[in-house]
Each structure stands twice: as C-alpha cells, then as structure tokens.
Write a structure and sequence with these properties.
Layout: H1 2-24, E1 28-32, E2 44-48, H2 49-71, H3 73-106
Antiparallel strand pairs: 1-2
Helix pairs in contact: 1-2
Length: 125
C-alpha cells in the first residue's frame, strides 16, 4: 500500500511536469548532426523541443538501466552457478538416499551391528 502511494506521489508531479513541458514547448527546433558545416548540415531534423527533451530523458533512463544490468552480470552469473550446484547436490543427495535405502533393505536385520540409541540403559560406557 505504501509503495503504491509513493508511486502516485512521484508519478503525479512528474506527469504534470511532462504535460506542462509538452504544452509550452511545441515550437520546432532544428537538430543538426553535422559539426563541420553548421550553415548547411548534411543531416538536420526539425522537431518540437519537448520531443527532443523527452527523447533525451528516455535515452538516459534506458542507458542507466543498461548500465545497471551490465554491472549486475557478476551477481547473475553467481546465482546461475549456485542454482546449478544446488541441483547437482540435490541429485547427489537423492542418489545417496536411494543407495542407503537399498543397503538397508539388503542387510540382514539380525547382525546386531546397529548403533546404540541415546538414552538406552544397555548402552556400553
């Protein structure tokens, strides 16, 4: 409930700012990507200013997300290795339990090689 409230408390002002930015900055600006001929660029685009600003924000958020994802690869690799090791050890545990059960079934019950039970008065000191 608190996280939903915090989301709304952050999203509402941000959304209002985006809408205000979009409404007030509708005039087109020229974006030229030719640093050698600024008077006659080889590639230029006329965009509303809010599209440019929002595009830069979206690009920055995506770049930040990619950076975080990239730096967490070590932790993802360790988790993957841990899952594989857990599965391997669970298989070994099951195999050993089956082997122990098979030995218990095949061993004669009257041999008397059982371990003493704690608290048993017949236990040797």
């Amino acid at each position: 409930m608190l996280s939903r409230l915090m989301t709304w408390l952050l999203a509402l002002p941000f959304g209002a700012a985006v809408i205000a930015l979009s409404v007030t900055n509708r005039k087109p600006v020229t974006v030229a990507l030719d640093p050698f001929r600024p008077e006659d660029p080889a590639f230029a685009v006329d965009l509303p200013l809010f599209v440019l600003v929002l595009g830069a924000m979206i690009f920055g958020i995506m770049l930040g997300g990619f950076t975080v994802w990239w730096h967490q690869r070590v932790h993802r690799r360790a988790a993957r290795t841990g899952r594989r090791e857990t599965a391997r050890l669970a298989g070994e545990r099951d195999r050993l339990a089956a082997d122990l059960a098979a030995r218990a079934e095949s061993a004669p019950a009257s041999v008397g090689l059982a371990l003493p039970v704690p608290g048993d008065p017949r236990r040797a000191a």
